[in-house]
Each structure stands twice: as C-alpha cells, then as structure tokens.
C-alpha cells in the first residue's frame, strides 16, 4: 500500500538526521493522506510487533492506532507525571486500566497513527534517559520491521466447548445472595457479571473479531489491545467514563436496560417502557447521584442533562450526561473518582466492590475497567464493556447486570444474554 509505505519511508529518513547523544524526548511527525484503502486496525493486525492498541471514539471523530512501547507505565499517575516533565508536543499515552487497578497497561507508543476529524498523521516518539541518538537508531530498526500489508480476515470457527461462570443455577444463587444483602442494608446496588469461555479448535483472529464488531456495533467506542500473538482484549462499548478538554469534563450515567429490536416501532415501544420503568429509572439515578457526589469539591460547576435512550444493536439503555468544569486538570483524580462507576460496580462502592470480589467466580481483569488516552490538553476513556479476552483458542465474553431491590434472576439472566450476544453472534456468523 503506497500511502503507508511512503509514510514509513519518510519517517525512517527523518531518523537519519543527527540527534544528540544525551537524554531527552523528540517527536517526528508527518501528515498522512486519508484514503478508504488504509484501515489502521487491519494494518496493526498484520504486524508482528506488540503491544498493539487501537481505539476509536464512538462519534468516529477521533482514532488512534499505536504500535510498540517507547515507555511503559504502571499507573495513570505515573503517566501523568511523565507528561508534565517531558511533553512539549501533544504526546498521547494510551492503553487500559483494569477494573480493580491491579493491572495497568499504559504506554507511550513507538509509532502512532492518529486521526482527528478529517486530518491524520503518523509519528514516531523518541525518549531516552541516556541517548536520543541511540534511540533514533532503535526507532529506525523498529520501522524497518513493519509491513505495509493489512490483515482482518475472518475464518470459520468450530466450537469445542462453552462454559458460563457462573452457570444459570449459580447465577440464581448469586442474585439471591445480592438481594438478601440489599434487604439487610449492606448496599443499595451491586453489578454482577458473568464470564463465558468459548473454546474453538483453532485460534480466533482477535483483530478480525474487532473489525467485525466495529462494522455492526454502531454508536460505540471501539477498543483493541493485543499484548502478543496469543493474548488480546477488545470490545465495543456504548459508555464513556470521561472526556476532558482543558478543564471541561463530560461523563455519564448509562444504566437501565431493555432489549432492542430490528423493527423501529417495536424498538420504540421497548424504549418507552424503559423510560417509564421504576426499577430501571432508580438504577440510573443511583449512578447519577453517585457520580455527582464523587465530583463535589473538585468542580466549579456541574449540570445534569435530561435522560435519553441509547439504542444499540441488541439492547437499549437510559443515559444521563453530566457536564462539569474542573478546578484542576488531573486525569488520575478523574480515574480514581469515576472508576468503577456505580453502573459497573454498585453503591456504596466499597461494599459493592467487596461483594463482587467475594462472590463472582472469576477475575474481571480488564472487563469493566477503561480504555483510552491521556495528554496534557485532553483525555478520553470509555468503560470496557461488551468486551472479550482472547487467549489462544479461547474467547472469554463478559456481561453484567445491575442488581437492586426487586431484581429477578430470570430477567437479569436474559439481560446478560442480550449483552453478550453482541460479540458472541460475530464468532458464529458466516
């Protein structure tokens, strides 16, 4: 492909310039022509270098494809400190935060393709504690390994086994434990999840699964992180954790769920029911109240927009957008205040978190965490829902449901079936 080949050659030529044999950072950036022929996700998927990270904003206006790590970070706070010390040119640090913060996969990419609106660029990030000259040599060798090819081909998969954790009987027991704890006043709400392991006779192509999800799951954030040739985490999430532009913050309460429908009239009937259902409205307002309480003291202004229905391929949700003006641009504080939201954990957060840790029969890891990027001027993360972990021949699908007083195991099981179907159906499509 001429455009990416030419861009890579131009970057490599720029790395032939003289660089000082001293510590520092440097960005080499060139404009990239936007054509329908280039798909950054499929191009990433063809490379034999990791980590790989692809992220697209749900509006489609912002997109990142990152390859290789110049610097890796063990916390968002560490990444923010790095930007404060070294950034002089809109550096973005991107990746994942796990649900419980026990895992962090944030990195400054060696190579980054970035699109904002109708403009795209390709850049190499140099960073060294000893010699920029040596790092430029390493970056040039890195580029020489890259291919201009793209790969996102789906292939037929044969299912060997399917295991739910918990199964339907275990789910009923879990809901009973939760509703009894709610009745006893231990917490108001807890979000319980199920992991489904689908094992195939051959390894699925994680990048192809992401591309298939992108095609059909509209109005969603899309995120893809490949750690190596066998391990990846990906998904298409409707939920923003936060977006910051300077001091202006946007977050949201996305809670309350009903099935969607291919017939617009039927879908509207379901949406009308959702808007008027007491249990779902209570669930959404619990999230709103919690977010507002967490932000108090750190914002100068806060506004809650009217409720709206978000219609997706398999489900519909109630969403209330919350806008605020921050006192200070601090992304680590945003993360600690907003993740996990009550929409993925519960209320009060500590008690719900303890219940999840005690009773869920699997580790959430990256599920219900966050994916996105930070920079000095702006940041944006989505909640990592409607997601899957690919490990060799096994795909683990995740889905959760908010449990409050009056929750019924049968309806909550159907809710997680609907949510998991968004990705599950793609593994068996022709």
From TrEMBL:
The Chorismate-utilising enzyme C-terminal domain sits at 169-419
The top EC class is isomerase
Q: Where is the active site?
A: 189 (proton acceptor), 239 (proton donor)
The record's listing under Gene3D superfamilies reads:
Anthranilate synthase (3.60.120.10)
* GO function terms (MF aspect): isochorismate synthase activity
Q: In which pathway does it act?
A: Quinol/quinone metabolism; menaquinone biosynthesis; Quinol/quinone metabolism; 1,4-dihydroxy-2-naphthoate biosynthesis; 1,4-dihydroxy-2-naphthoate from chorismate: step 1/7
Q: What is its EC number?
A: 5.4.4.2
Key words of the record: Isomerase, Magnesium, Menaquinone biosynthesis, Metal-binding
Binding positions (Mg(2+)): 283, 415
| Keyword Metal-binding on entry | yes
Which domain of life does the UniProt lineage start with? Bacteria
Q: Which cofactor does it need?
A: Mg(2+)
Catalytic activity field:
chorismate = isochorismate
UniProt keyword annotation of Magnesium present: yes
InterPro entries named among the record's database cross-references = ADC_synthase, Chorismate_C, IsoChor_synthase, MenF, MenF-like
Matching NCBIfam families, A to Z?
isochor_syn, PRK15012.1
Name the family the entry cites.
Belongs to the isochorismate synthase family.
- Protein's job: Catalyzes the conversion of chorismate to isochorismate.
This chain belongs to which protein, by name?
Answer: Isochorismate synthase MenF
Q: Which organism is it from?
A: Pseudocitrobacter corydidari
């Amino acid at each position: 492909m001429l455009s990416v080949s030419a861009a890579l050659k131009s970057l490599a030529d720029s790395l032939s310039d003289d660089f000082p044999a001293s510590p520092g950072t440097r960005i080499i950036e060139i404009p990239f022509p936007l054509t329908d022929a280039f798909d950054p996700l499929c191009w990433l998927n063809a490379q034999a270098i990791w980590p790989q990270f692809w992220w697209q904003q749900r509006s489609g206006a912002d997109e990142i494809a990152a390859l290789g790590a110049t610097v890796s970070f063990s916390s968002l706070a560490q990444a923010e400190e790095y930007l404060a010390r070294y950034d002089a040119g809109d550096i973005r640090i991107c990746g994942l935060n796990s649900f419980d913060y026990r895992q962090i996969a944030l990195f400054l990419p060696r190579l980054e393709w970035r699109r904002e609106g109708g403009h795209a660029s390709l850049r190499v990030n140099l960073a060294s504690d000893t010699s920029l000259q040596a790092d430029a040599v390493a970056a040039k060798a890195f580029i020489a390994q890259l291919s201009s090819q793209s790969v996102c081909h789906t292939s037929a998969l044969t299912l060997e086994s399917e295991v739910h954790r918990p199964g339907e009987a275990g789910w009923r027991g879990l809901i009973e434990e939760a509703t009894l704890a709610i009745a006893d006043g231990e917490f108001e709400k807890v979000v319980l999840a199920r992991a489904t392991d689908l094992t195939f006779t051959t390894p699925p192509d994680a990048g192809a699964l992401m591309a298939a999800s992108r095609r059909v799951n509209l109005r969603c954030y899309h995120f893809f992180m490949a750690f190596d040739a066998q391990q990846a985490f990906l998904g298409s999430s409707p939920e923003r954790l936060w977006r910051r532009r300077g001091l202006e913050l946007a977050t949201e309460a996305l809670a309350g769920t009903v099935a969607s429908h291919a017939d617009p009239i039927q879908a509207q009937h379901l949406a009308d029911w959702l808007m008027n259902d007491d249990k779902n409205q209570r669930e959404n307002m619990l999230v709103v109240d919690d977010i507002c309480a967490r932000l108090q003291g750190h914002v100068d202004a806060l506004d809650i927009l009217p409720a709206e229905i978000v219609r997706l391929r398999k489900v519909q949700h109630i969403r209330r957008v919350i806008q605020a003006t921050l006192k200070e641009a601090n992304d680590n504080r945003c993360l600690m205040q907003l993740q996990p939201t009550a929409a993925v954990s519960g209320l009060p957060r500590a008690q719900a978190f303890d219940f999840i840790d005690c009773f869920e029969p699997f580790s959430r890891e990256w599920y219900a965490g966050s994916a996105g990027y930070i920079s000095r001027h702006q940041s944006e993360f989505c909640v990592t829902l409607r997601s899957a972990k690919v490990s060799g021949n096994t795909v683990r699908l995740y889905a959760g449901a908010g449990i409050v007083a009056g929750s019924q195991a049968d309806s909550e099981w159907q809710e997680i079936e609907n949510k998991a179907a968004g990705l599950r159906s793609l593994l068996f499509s022709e």
